[in-house]
Amino acid sequence: MTVQTPVPMDKATFLGWAERQEENYELVRGRVVMMTGGPRGHSHILFNLATALDTRIDLDTWAVLPEFGVEVGPATIRFPDIVVDPAGGAVTDRTATAPVLIAEVMSPSSARIDLGDKAAEYLRLPSLGTYVVVASDEIKLWVWTRTATGFSSGPVVLGDIAASVEVPALGIALPLAEIYARVQLD
């Protein structure tokens, strides 16, 4: 029996290959990993979050980019659900230049990666001010915010619909009521 292992890719090769694929992929430590689509709640939260950001930020300064590439290591490119990056990038850019906010909408099956691997990778980005993980099955957010001394050892956890996520780098607050608007949770 022969077992074939995938051939590692560099970032440039991956980006060229990925744009020709119908499905979505990430490059993780040189290996191609397929991303699956989320359920209705995931899509609804993603839309609400993008809309809340888009209506609050200075669009001449910042761009809200859903599922846009972020280089997080020498052989890793992630595609977070939401990236806020400086505005004015070329239409052909495939990765963020200096993301200040990254958000992931988490399903129960992605918790280990979103709260573990991705958190560790994103928090190393020098430009990042806030990383947010939004649960799709309950009202709960994990928020890491950079201070003058860096990121704390763990996130602030929000679970009150009346709360807001403060994003100091953008000078805005995002109400949980807007993030979860019209989302039917069981």
Automatic annotation (TrEMBL):
One Pfam match, given by its short name, reads Uma2
User: Which keywords are on file for this protein?
Assistant: Endonuclease, Hydrolase, Nuclease
- The answer to whether keyword Nuclease applies is yes
Matching entries from CDD domains are given as: DUF820-like
Q: Does the keyword Zinc-finger apply?
A: no
| Residue stretches making up the Putative restriction endonuclease domain | 13-157
Gene Ontology molecular functions: endonuclease activity
What's the protein here called?
A: Uma2 family endonuclease
Q: Which organism is it from?
A: Rhodoplanes serenus
